[in-house]
Amino acid sequence: MTTQQTTISVSDLRVSYGSKEVIHGISFDIFRNEIFSVIGPAQSGKTSLLRCLNRTIDFSPHARMSGTITVDGQNVGTMRNVFDLRRKIGMVAPLPVGLPLSIYDNVAFAPRCAGLTHKSDLDALVEKCLTQAALWEEVKDRLNSLGTALSGGQQQRLTIARALSHQPDILCLDEFSIAIDPVTTMRIEDVLQELKNEMTIILVTNLTQQARRLASRTMFLYNGDLVEVDTNEVIFSNTPAKRETYDYINGLFG
Amino acid sequence: MTTTATNNSLKPVQPQSGKKPSRPLWAIIGERALEALIRFCGISAIIFVLAIFIFVFKEAMPILFSGHFNIGEFLFSTKWYPTSMSNVRYGTFALTVGSLTVTALAMAIAVPFGLGAAIYISEFCGPRQKETLKVVIELLAAIPSVVWGFIGLTVISKFITAITGTPVGVNLLNGSIILGLMSVPIIVSIGEDALKAVPDSFREAGTAMGTTKWQLITRVLLPAAKNGLLAAVLLGVGRAVGETMAVLMATGHSVRIPHGIFDSVRTLTANIAAELGEAAAGSDHYRVLFLTGILLFAITFAVNLTADFVIRGVKRK
After folding, report:
1. Going by fewer Cβ within 10 Å, which terminus of chain A is more open, N or C?
2. Rounded to whole angstroms, how far apart are CA atoms A16 and B137?
3. Structural domain contains residue A110
4. Mutation for B interface: A53, A60, A87, A109, most B CBs within 10 A
5. Which of B231, B218, B223, B215 has its CA nearest to residue B198?
6. How far A172 CA sits from the closest chain B CA (Å)?
7. Half-sphere exposure (Cβ direction) of B152: Cα atoms closer than 13 Å
8. What's the farthest any 2 CA atoms get from each other in chain A?
9. What is the pLDDT of residue A197?
C-alpha cells in the first residue's frame, strides 16, 4: 500500500453548520485509482465530507469548514479557481437531479460549459458516458426527450453519465444505489471496477456489503468521528481495530 | 415502540363502548357549509367576469345594429371625431396603434431591467441587501398611477425636451418610460419568485459540474424558470396595456399614428377615461366608448391566450 500515490489528503477537517459541529476533525488519505468507500449511519457526516471536497458546501450559508483538504497537492479551501476543481470531480447525489434538459443535453452539459462544441465529439462522448452508466441501450432512441421523464433509476444512471461527462479524475458517488434496482446496481458496480483504472472513486454507501464488494479500503464514520480507516481485509475481518466497526458491519450496533 | 411491546399492540384498537366512533353533527354540517362557501368563492370569479362582459356588451350592443355604424371603420380608420358637428367619425385604429406601441416600447425598457434585477436579487446579492431591495421594489409597486403620471408630466417631460430638444415632452417615449417603470416591480417580484422556485439541487448539480456563475444562470436557471419568467413578463404586459391614468397624463393625448418615439399618442384606455365622463349616457359616443372597452378586452384576452399557448408549447418541447 505504501507504494500508492496519495491523491486526496484530508487533515483535521472540521465542519459545522451554525453552532453544531458535524465533523469533528478527521484525517485520512485517498490513493490514486482506488475505490475508497465511506460507511456509517445517518448523521455521521458522509455527505458533508463530499460537499467539502468540491466546495459545494459554500452554498450552505451557515456552514464553516476548517482544516485542510488537498487534491493533487492543491489546497481546496484556499484555491482560486473552484470551477477547475469541480470539473476534476464528478459528483453523483443520492437522489437524481435531472436538469430540465433533454437526455443528450444533460450529458453534454458539462463538456459544453467547458468549451467542447464539436457535434461529433459531443456525440461520441455522450454515447461513451451513457454506455458506462449502463443506460445507452435504453435511451439511445430517444436522446432528445426530457431527462426528467425517465424513471427514477434511469435518472440516477443519467446523473452518473453526467458526472462522467467531464472526464473527472475523481468520481464521488453518494449512495448512488438508493434509487436503483439490484440488477442495475450490479451492472454499475461492474462499470465502477473498470473505471477504477482511469480515476479515483469515492463511494459513500449505506450498504456495507457494497463497500465490501467494491472498495479496496473503507472508512467508518460515526457521528462525525473517524472510527477506523483501513483496507477491506482488515475492516471486514473478524478482528478490525475497533469493536464498533465489527458491530456496525455485522448489524449488532446500538 | 419499545422492546416491551408485544404482539397485542398490532391488533386494531377497539373502542370501549363497542360502538363505532362517529363525528359530531356540528362537524359534519360545518364541513359541508365550509365546502359550499369555498366553492362559491371559486365560482364567483367566473360570475364576475361574465357579469362584467355582459354589462359592457349590453351597453355597446345597440350601436352595432344601428345601421349607420360601420365595424370596419371602427377598427381600421384613424379618424376619431366623436364630437364633430358635421362629420362624426369613430375610428379607433390610431388608439389601438397607440396602445400597442406604448406597450411595446415600455416592455423594451422594462423586461431587461426587470429580469436583470430579478436575477441579481435571486442569485447575486447577500441576504441583507436582498431584503432591502425587495422592500424598495415593493414600494415602487405601491406608488399610485396618478403619481407616476404626475412625474411623467412634470419631471420626465422636462428631461426629454432638455436632452433631445423636441418641442413636446409628453409623448410616446415619456409614456413608455413611465409604463416601463410601473411594470418593473411586477416583473421583478414574480421573476424572482420563479427563480427562487428552482430547487437548490439544480444549482449544486450545475456547480458540481464546474459551471461558472454565468453558465449556471444561462444554461440551468433560466431554462428551469422560463415559464415563471414568461408569466412575469406577460403580467408586465398586462399591466402596461391596461394602465390608464399614467399614460393619459404622460403621452400627450393626441389621436394619431406615431411616426417616431417623440410623437404624442393616445391609448385606448386613456381615451375611454377621458371621454366617458363627457359623453351623454345612451348616445352613440357613449356606446362606441363601451365598444372600445370590448376591443381592449379582446386585446388583453388575446395576450393571455397567446401566453397560455406559448407556455404550453414550451412545456411540450
Report:
1. C
2. 35
3. yes
4. A109
5. B223
6. 11
7. 27
8. 56
9. 87
Chain A residues touching residue B203 (CB < 8 angstroms): 59
Give domain status of residue A254, yes or no.
no
Q: Are A82 and A46 in contact (CB under 8 A)?
A: no
User: Chain A residue closest to B225 (CA)?
Assistant: A100
Q: What is the pLDDT of residue B220?
A: 87
Length of chain A: 254
A99–B202 CB contact, under 8 Å: yes
User: What's the CA gap between A54 and A47, in Å, rounded?
Assistant: 11
- Collect all residues from B whose CB is shorter than 8 A from any CB in A: 127, 199-212, 215, 219-220, 223-224
Place A178 in a pLDDT band, splitting at 50, 70 and 90. Answer: confident
Residue A124 domain flag: yes
Strand pairing category for A63-71 and A35-39:
unpaired
B12, exposed or middle or buried, with CB in 10 Å at 0-12, 13-18, 19+? exposed
Cβ atoms A136, A107 nearer than 8 A: no
* ipTM computed for the complex: 0.72
- Containing structural domain, residue A231: 6-249
pLDDT digits over B206-254, tens only?
888 878 888 889 888 998 888 889 888 888 888 888 888 899 988 888 8
Counting beta carbons within 10 angstroms of the beta carbon of residue A115, is it exposed (0 to 12), middle (13 to 18) or buried (19 or more)?
Answer: exposed
What letter represents residue B163's amino acid?
A: I
Q: How confident is the model at residue A36 (pLDDT cuts 50, 70, 90)?
A: very high
Q: What is the count of structural domains for chain A?
A: 1
* Phi, psi of A253, deg, nearest 5: -75, 150
In a domain, A134, yes or no: yes
The CATH number that applies at residue A88 is 3.40.50.300
A209 vs A183: CA distance, rounded Å:
15
| pLDDT tens digits along B177-216 | 999 999 999 999 999 999 998 888 888 888 888 788 888 8
Average pLDDT, stretch B266-293? 90
Q: What is the pLDDT of residue B17?
A: 58
Query: Minimum mean pLDDT among B7-11, B149-153, B304-308: which range?
Result: B7-11
Is there a contact between B210 and A97 if contact means CB atoms under 8 Å apart? no
CA-to-CA distance for A11 and B28, rounded, in angstroms? 64
Does A109 touch chain B if contact means CB atoms closer than 8 Å? yes
Q: Which residues contact A25 (CB under 8 A, 6 or more apart)?
A: A12, A13, A14, A67
